[in-house]
Amino acid sequence: MSAAAPSPAALVESAKKAAAIQAVDEHLLPSHRYIGIGSGSTVVYVVEAIVAKGVDFYKNMVFIPTGSQSKGLIRTAGLTLANLDERPVVNGRPVQLDVCFDGADEVDAELNLIKGGGACLFQEKLVAIAAKTFVAVADYRKQSPRLCTTWKNIPIEVLPLSAPDVLLRLQALGSPAPAVRSGLPSKAGECVTDNGMWIIDAPFPPLLLPSDLTPEVDGLGKGGVWEVSKLADELLRTPGIVEIGLFHGFNGTQAVGLGREGQAQKPVAAYFGTADGKVDVQRA
Ligand SMILES: O=C[C@H](O)[C@H](O)[C@H](O)COP(=O)(O)O
């Protein structure tokens, strides 16, 4: 009798694990000192892959969390933990992290990301931009030509008392049915983030890239059709919005050329575990 085929859920888990192992192998060097650890189910395998390298490999490394789940992961694994604001300051600036690994809900053709499906995005963005190299780790379900194709909503972190007005503003920007995320089934009432905020999930039609724009299609929100960075800028201009789950713009390597170190939200590469056990790497 032949062995039963793995379930779809098991295939997804092994895809995440394979992606994590390869991402860590290719981006974590023994000389690295400060490492960002993101949130979600895929970074669990990132931490596993780091631990598997052995204590001699990671004993001098300090791991920076992106929220309470991430903090727990680092602690439970026996890795050295420090908060983002505890990095040493050298020549007047906090040291950059060497690398940050994080998951994603959707990744487009230019490595823009949607994040926040698990209500973590604000600290994730702070840790990602503090890193010289940001690496996304995911499974095959997350790769899309354009954001909001498979993952239809943009998670937006808001000050709770601003929620009614932010919802109205989102509708005016073309989001058909934005909604405050519920904490159910595990928590009655709204989902509260690690920062004491709420999440609004705002659906939008697929987000365009600059190369999609034409004189007729300007990506400025007509009919709710936006280009990624134009929508991100507009959202961040809305009082009450604390941070958005769009990670866009440029990556760490490009940031150096632009003189904008410490502001890069895009990964240099996304690792997607595939259903047949391989890893597809999308590089900038
Ligand atoms: O809010 C959660 C974070 O942005 C996660 O990194 C993202 O949702 C991906 O999570 P997972 O690895 O569980 O798919």
Going by helix content, strand content and strand pairing, the class is: alpha/beta
Tell me the strand percentage band. 15-25%
User: Terminal Cα separation, in Å?
Assistant: 46 Å
CATH class of the largest domain: Alpha Beta
Please characterize this protein's 3D structure:
By secondary structure, this protein is an alpha/beta fold. The chain folds into 2 domains: 8-144 and 248-283, Rossmann fold (3-Layer(aba) Sandwich), CATH 3.40.50; 153-245, ACT domain (Alpha-Beta Plaits, 2-Layer Sandwich), CATH 3.30.70.260. The chain has helices spanning 8-27, 43-52, 55-58, 68-76, 122-129, 163-172, 228-236, 252-258, and strands spanning 34-37, 62-65, 80-81, 89-90, 93-94, 97-102, 106-107, 113-114, 131-139, 153-158, 179-180, 198-203, 241-244, 246-247, 269-273, 279-283. Strands 3-2-1-6-9-15-16 form a 7-stranded mixed beta sheet, with helices on both faces. It has a 4-stranded antiparallel beta sheet with strand order 11-12-10-13, with helices on one face. A 3-stranded antiparallel beta sheet has the order 7-8-14, with no helix packed on it. Helix 1 (8-27) packs across helix 2 (43-52). The mean pLDDT is 96. The structure holds ribose-5-phosphate. Ribose-5-phosphate binds at residues 38-42, 102-105, 115-121, 124.
Please write out the topology:
Elements: H1 8-27, E1 34-37, H2 43-52, H3 55-58, E2 62-65, H4 68-76, E3 80-81, E4 89-90, E5 93-94, E6 97-102, E7 106-107, E8 113-114, H5 122-129, E9 131-139, E10 153-158, H6 163-172, E11 179-180, E12 198-203, H7 228-236, E13 241-244, E14 246-247, H8 252-258, E15 269-273, E16 279-283
Parallel strand pairs: 1-2, 1-6, 2-3, 6-9, 9-15
Antiparallel strand pairs: 4-5, 7-8, 8-14, 10-12, 10-13, 11-12, 15-16
EC number: 5.3.1.6
Family: Belongs to the ribose 5-phosphate isomerase family.
Pfam families: Rib_5-P_isom_A
